[in-house]
Description:
Blueprint: H1 10-18, H2 22-33, H3 39-47, E1 54-60, H4 66-79, E2 84-90, E3 116-122, H5 134-143, E4 148-152, H6 163-166, E5 169-174, H7 180-185, H8 189-192, E6 195-198, H9 206-219, E7 230-233, H10 242-258, H11 261-288, H12 294-303, H13 309-320
Parallel strand pairs: 1-4, 1-5, 2-3, 2-4, 5-6, 6-7
Helix pairs in contact: 1-2, 2-5, 4-10, 12-13
Amino acid sequence: MTSLRRSRDIPLLVGHARDGDPRAVARLITLVETGDESLPEMAVALASHAGRARIVGITGSPGVGKSTTTNELVRALRKRDQRVGVLAIDPSSPFSGGAILGDRVRMQDHATDPGVYIRSMSNRGHLGGLSAATPQAVRVLEGAGCDVVLVETVGVGQAEVEVASLADTTMVLLAPGMGDAIQAVKAGILEIADVFVVNKADRDGADATYRDIQGMIALGERAAGRWRPQVVRAVASRAEGIEETLDALDRHHDWLRAHGELDRRRAARAAAEVEAIALGTLRSRLAALRGGTALTDLAADVAAGRRDPYSAAASLLDLLA
């Protein structure tokens, strides 16, 4: 009998994942990461389990304590008897393509807990703070019965805000003395945060960071009835402020449900996922046209000035049709 670690029997793997077998979950996510041909079958098997987990995105600059905070959030959620999945997105090694940091090392407290599944995923050069496989990996964890999925991004700057399109709630971590308050003024991070956490709040400058963020939120334009981002102080290394952080996340989730925003966000997420799959299929078909030479030939004509790029694109679409 083929072991679960090597199996491509999707119904078998999904069944074992639903029963909480971490080997089956690991195998399914590996198939997602490698773009296995069984992905369409997997999507069918997981579709009926979608939309049952809360998806929380955790982002912030390198060094603000994302992994420590995630670790403590997992601990607090387990005390509430919730099943938790964690996707920790790490930078890629330029040599092996694997995850460099291996955030699971920092979450060993939960290694033997059957109610927790933690997976480090390499971003493989994908911009935006996530991995291209993250949306499907989230679906696997939903299918495995997780009540909450925490998605911890690569350390990001002001532009890597892709996590907001994946999560129901986006939590941005800040720390005093790192210029985060100034960074938050700039377009990007400020706009995506549903909850701000000023971590390492026992350090000098934490109160100033807290006030700065509150001031920036007050200056932001919001329509009547829109969510006002919450700001929480925490010292994750001592588990301080974690319950307050969970309470803020709960308030946002309740607001999403009450205002129909949860369904809207999930519909937008599904639309982006469908579009990405469709574009990936189109790229594959384009690459195969005329044995892979169609695009090259058209590009050569455009580069030589024999035709314009719009007519070349139209010709390419005609070939697809």
